[in-house]
């Protein structure tokens, strides 16, 4: 198991089956291409740390990079999303 703590720059050239990103909307959108390059086919990207009003923008950006939204959890105005990367 390879666990890294830090921003998207900590990913490097490594590929992962699971990526967890807990940060705000703007950074998630800016780093989505990095997450996509680092996620293996059929891998999972979990994102959280943003508001329900941000779901549409984040999901649209993820879709551009081959991620499909498969689950959503909301608590008050906070949300987490689960994406699976297509092949």
Description:
By secondary structure, the chain is of the alpha+beta class. The chain has helices spanning 25-38, 55-64; strands at residues 16-22, 39-51, 67-75, 78-85. The protein has a four-stranded mixed β-sheet with strand order 1-2-4-3. Helix 1 (25-38) links the parallel strand 1 (16-22) and strand 2. The protein is globular.
Summarize the structure.
The chain has 87 residues and is an alpha+beta fold. Helices cover 28% and strands 43% of the residues.
Question: Which descriptors apply to this entry?
Answer:
87 residues, alpha+beta, four-stranded mixed sheet, 2 helices, 4 strands, 28% helix, globular
Supply the helix-strand structural class.
Answer: alpha+beta
Q: Could you say which overall geometry the principal axes of the C-alpha atoms support?
A: globular
Q: What's the order of the H and E elements?
A: EHEHEE
Radius of gyration: 12 Å
The major pleated sheet works out as: 4 strands, mixed
Distance between the termini: 22 Å
- Strand % is 35-45%
Layout of helices and strands:
Blueprint: E1 16-22, H1 25-38, E2 39-51, H2 55-64, E3 67-75, E4 78-85
Parallel strand pairs: 1-2
Antiparallel strand pairs: 2-4, 3-4
Helix pairs in contact: 1-2
């Amino acid at each position: 198991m390879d666990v890294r703590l830090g921003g998207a720059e900590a990913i490097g050239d490594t590929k992962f089956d699971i990526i967890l990103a807990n940060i705000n909307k703007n950074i998630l959108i800016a780093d989505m291409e990095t997450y996509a390059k680092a996620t293996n086919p059929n891998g999972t990207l979990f994102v959280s740390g943003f508001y329900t009003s941000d779901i549409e923008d984040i999901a649209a950006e993820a879709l551009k990079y081959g991620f499909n939204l498969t689950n959503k959890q909301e608590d008050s105005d906070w949300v987490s999303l689960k994406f699976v990367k297509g092949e």
